[in-house]
## 1
Amino acid sequence: MHEEHGSWLNAIVHMLPESVQHHYVDIFVVNSWLVIILLVLLAWLGTRRRQRKPAGLQNVWEMYVEWVRSFCRKEIGPDGEKHVPLLGTIFVYILFLNLFGLVPGFITPTMTLNMTLPLAVVVFLWVQWSGVAALGVGGYIMHFVGQPVWLAPINIPVHVTGEIAKPLSLAIRLFGNMFGEETALVQMAALGATIFAATYIPFPVQFINVALHLLVGPIQAFIFFALSAAYIKMATTHEGEEHHEEGAGEHDEAQSAEQAV
Amino acid sequence: MDYASALALGVGFGLPLAVAFAATAQGRAAAAAAESMARQPEAAGDIRGTLIISLALIESLVIYVLLAFFLLNGKLPAIMDYVQQAGQ
Amino acid sequence: MEVLEQLGIEPGIMVVNVVGFLILLALLSKFAFGPVGQILDDRRREVEANLDEAERMKQMALADKRAIEEELEKVNARAEEILAEAESEAAKRRSEILARADEERRRIIEEGERAVEHSANEARRRLRAETAELAREISERALRLALDEQRQAALVEAFIADIEQLADGQSEGERT
């Protein structure tokens, strides 16, 4: 059942005992560790010598943090800044994981549910925790009970199922996209090999899939990130309040549009 | 029609069916988004964000079907078994 | 469970991945989001302070400009005043000079007239004396020549008339 994936890191996995190899640390985990080390190194290099006038890596980090902050403020609300570390880590981590398979000799760890489900579970727990923190325990429970209180027997299962479905859909979406992408890539490469065997012309059929992978990886990372933000917003605001806020936001936008005109 | 044939048909046609409907839905969403972007170019950024998220939501349904496809695909008997069965 | 195995789900690997993610979250918060967020906050505060400062400077500059303009206006008014004063002074001086010159002219003319009249009178007086002298000499000569009385009287009459006429003509010529 345990197939081998082509990676330069296989040797590290093979050094481990059999039980650890199959149940705790597989080749995807080693690749994700490499991504973690790379990211931490980039962060350390970028903020090692902080300057008032940013240069090089510090610029990139500042732009990234500013982008995540403005996204959180826009999507979650004025107190969205406290979600910046989690959401920012999620985005950059998934982005690097998605694109890591394009580096020759490495594989994409997000093509397994073992990688995407933990991320989704962390987001799920964070969403529930921030719901409790924002609304209080009573408000959190009322969130599940729903608006007409006598409908609670129906509402509670529906809401609980919905809450569990959210991380599941996050995980399965990411996994499905990356797995499908990688499978198509492998099949195309195999097709290229077949063509080569028949005609002795090396033809890179998988080239277009690599380009598509470059597009899909960042988009999926962004979707995971944006949907996490949306779930946080849903959990931290009451439903009625949310509508009110949306109305206010539209009003503000209309005002600003008028000012712009 | 025995179990294996039904399974093969399900595996073969399930995913294309889902893809067809999802593609229709995505096309409609993208068309509406493009139209409203053309009408209000100043709101293009917001519309693009909403479009990407809704496309992802539609696409996730196809991904669920893809998952089911892989699960059912694993249940299909290997082709050599069939050849042997047919030979007997 | 069979489904889990088919999907390749291993709880142990998932736990390892959760731990890895939490480590990454902690390290990135420490190295990236904390310091960079602080930099951004500091910079925002600094920019706001700078903008306030610039606004204050602008207000000050505007106030200065207004004061300078007021001063300039005052100076202009003063200059105009001075100019007008000088002009009126000049006009006064001009008319004064003109009046003095006029008076001078009149005085000179009067003096000249007086001198002319004086010299005319003098001439007339001398002429008369000379005429009398001449008349006396002539009459002496005539007496010596023993002319008759009528002829003598007629001669003297005619002579005096001539003299009168001459003197008149002479004084008229002098006056013009």
## 2
Amino acid sequence: MDPVEPTDSELIAAVLRGDTACFEQLITKYQPRVFATARRYARRDDEVEDIVQEVFLKAYQKLSSFRAEAPFEHWLMRLAVRTCYDFLRDHQRNRETSFTEITDAEDDWLERHAEDPDGSDEKATEAKELVDKVLEKMSPAGRLVITLLEIEDRSVKEIAELTGWSVPLVKVRAFRARAEMKKLLTKLMKDKKL
Amino acid sequence: MNTANLNKKLIAAARHHGTSDRVPYAFEKRIMAHIKDLRPVDVWALWGRALWRAAAPCVAITLIIGVWSFQSRDSEVAQLKSADLETTVLAPMDNLGDVW
């Protein structure tokens, strides 16, 4: 018979008592979710690994501030989103607005979409590559809001909790992010003469 | 071409593909190796250390100002300066009657 797995609260209490090894079980349990979140904001493997490592190191250092009012996972995901935002702000590279690095396959997808907007395949890898390139050109706040609001389909209130921003600030940033995305797509179409 | 339609398609593509939750082999061991070099943050210890570090410069500044004020206490220039300072600080009080 398998021994009963300790709960998150038990593991956290053990870590705070000095049993550092218990933190490994928390890492093992939650690292897939943190990796999936980090991969939304960073493409290179070494960058993703650095973000995840930072999230867990911060979690360990701030563990005594965890109040257990919400599940540990929520607290950890807040840390993860804020660490990803810090990463975006520190790596504001490649934000020139020209789309010169678009591949032929992506170009073809755009042309097909221009000819038949409803028939273009959103399941195509080229579409995913294109959206990644557009998001890379956005401001850190804009990218974060579009990812959370449009791609992850989270509510404004959830985004406010995850980011630490107020609800009106999320709304303002969402409005600006959508305008920024529209401007980038207009530029993309203009560059490709579509 | 309509940007709204393109936006909708691209967001749908991002939703469809999602992101991988694959974890590199023994990644938790790597984090634990870093954690062994760390200790949980003790806020009181941090405050204590910062205050102790600030104590020496504060004492030094107090001594310098004390010596300087002691030496210049009787000089005529210092008396003039203190009179000027007092006049400047109390200037709004002198004009208080004009306001009413």
